[in-house]
Amino acid sequence: MASRKTSDDRRARIEAMRKAEQSRERRNRVLTIGISGVVVASLIGFGVYVMNKESEEQEQKVAEAKAPIANEQTWDAKKLGRNHVDKAVQYPMKPPVGGDHHHAWMNCNGDVYKESIPNENAVHSLEHGAVWVTYNDKAAKADVEKLEKRVKGNQYTLMSPVKDQAGAIMLSAWGKQITAETASDPRVDRFLAKYVLGEQTPEKGAACTGGLKGK
């Protein structure tokens, strides 16, 4: 009888241990699933937050890009002639921001010209979506060098001196223009970002290479 009782007790302890182990496994599974759910929810929440933040930042950039630039001059693009001519054109503004022009454009693939270039060819570059950076003797040497670095290698930009322009530094696009005293003026970067191949471009996608080469 004692042997049988001992055997029964042993089986009872083994069964109790087995049930306890099963209970621990169930608790661990529940805990693991719970933790996994929290982690997944956190990752999803973080992902949504990042996407929303990026979307908000993008919307802000778009809004800033479309916002008017301080002291920017604007001409009605529809009233600016676009005929090809083989003679000099008397433009109402200096540098010109549009109008009839020569059939050949100035290369505007980040080209920096040390000497004056023909207005009629530069205007054709503006028609293709380029921004023309100009300066006169009032511009500091350091500012001219900074602008050269900003233009060089950047597609749809060109730079040249215009001695008789009103401002020390001027940026022109088709129908758009600003005047700045220094290259550090934040409007310089804004103008380039907004108008290089901007919405004002009459012939967006037209070439800025294969045109006239200056010095």
Could you describe the 3D structure shown?
This protein has 215 residues and is α/β, with parallel strands linked by helices. The protein has two domains: 1-67; 73-195, no CATH class. Helix content is 44%, strand content 12%. The protein has four helices and six strands; from the N terminus they run H-E-E-H-E-H-E-E-E-H. The chain has helices spanning 2-66, 119-127, 141-151, 186-195; strands at 73-74, 109-112, 131-135, 157-161, 169-173, 176-180. The protein has a six-stranded mixed beta sheet. Helix 3 (141-151) links the parallel strand 3 and strand 4 (157-161). The longest helix is centred in the N-terminal third of the chain and has 65 residues, at 2-66. The chain is rod-shaped and about 120 Å long. The model has no long low-confidence stretch (mean pLDDT 86).
The helix content, as a percent range, equals 40-55%
Global shape: rod-shaped
Estimate what percentage of residues fall within beta strands: 5-15%
- Which runs of at least 5 residues are low in confidence (pLDDT < 50)? none
Number of domain modules: 2
How many runs of DSSP E, i.e. beta strands?
6
Tell me the strand order in the biggest sheet: 1-6-5-3-4-2
Largest sheet: 6 strands, mixed
Per DSSP, the total helix count is: 4
How big is the Rg?
35 Å
Mean pLDDT over the residues: 86
Q: Strand pairing plus helix content: what structural class?
A: alpha/beta
Distance from first to last alpha carbon? 116 Å
- SSE run: HEEHEHEEEH
